[in-house]
Each structure stands twice: as structure tokens, then as C-alpha cells.
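Might you be able to consider the sequence and fold that I enclose below?
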Amino acid sequence: MLRPRQSAQVYLYMEPVDMRKSIDGLAALVEQEMELSPALEALFVFCNRGQDKIKMLYWERNGFVVWYKRLEKQRFRWPREDDFTYHKRSGRDLNQLLDGLNIWCQKPHQSLQFDSVT
């Protein structure tokens, strides 16, 4: 299976998307709803209402690529409601999402600030 680099820029579109949309429809969502250029060096990820299908759109040198995954029995861990149109994540997070992990509940260790080390 093809997987993005861990350092890849990933934009997750938060609203459910009709999976009948192809390149032009997805690119229009990126431009109009996300207010980003679909030709950015990034992956744009869309999920359907049933959370069992994901499409990714990305620009590769001279044209768009659409990648599609359909789960047969399980669901992707996608939040139901969100205040934001999209979330910027890493390729590592996307790979974990594709593996079925809930990337929304993972919280990193808190950052600590010290005035001295003694």
C-alpha cells in the first residue's frame, strides 16, 4: 500500500464529503471551502458521512492524483463535529488514521519551561 512520508503536510477536511466527487469537485472544496491552493505540495484528505471511505487529493508535478480507500467492516476515527473547516496534520498522523488509530485523542507530553536546570 502507498503511504505518505511522515513529514508530509496533510490537510484533513472536516465536513463529510460525497465520495462521488472526483478531482474537480475535491479541488473546488480545497479552493473554496479551505481557501488553499490544491497545487500546494500537500495531501488533502476527505472522509464520507459513514466514515468508511477516504479520498486524498494531491498535485504531482504535472497533474492531480486521487487516492481512495474503502473499509469493508470498520470506520475511520473522524470527529463528528468540529469548529474548523480543516485541520493541518503530519503524514505520520495520516498513516495512523489509515491504520485505525484515533489521532484526535492523542495528546503529546506537555512542554516544560525551566529557568534553570539545578
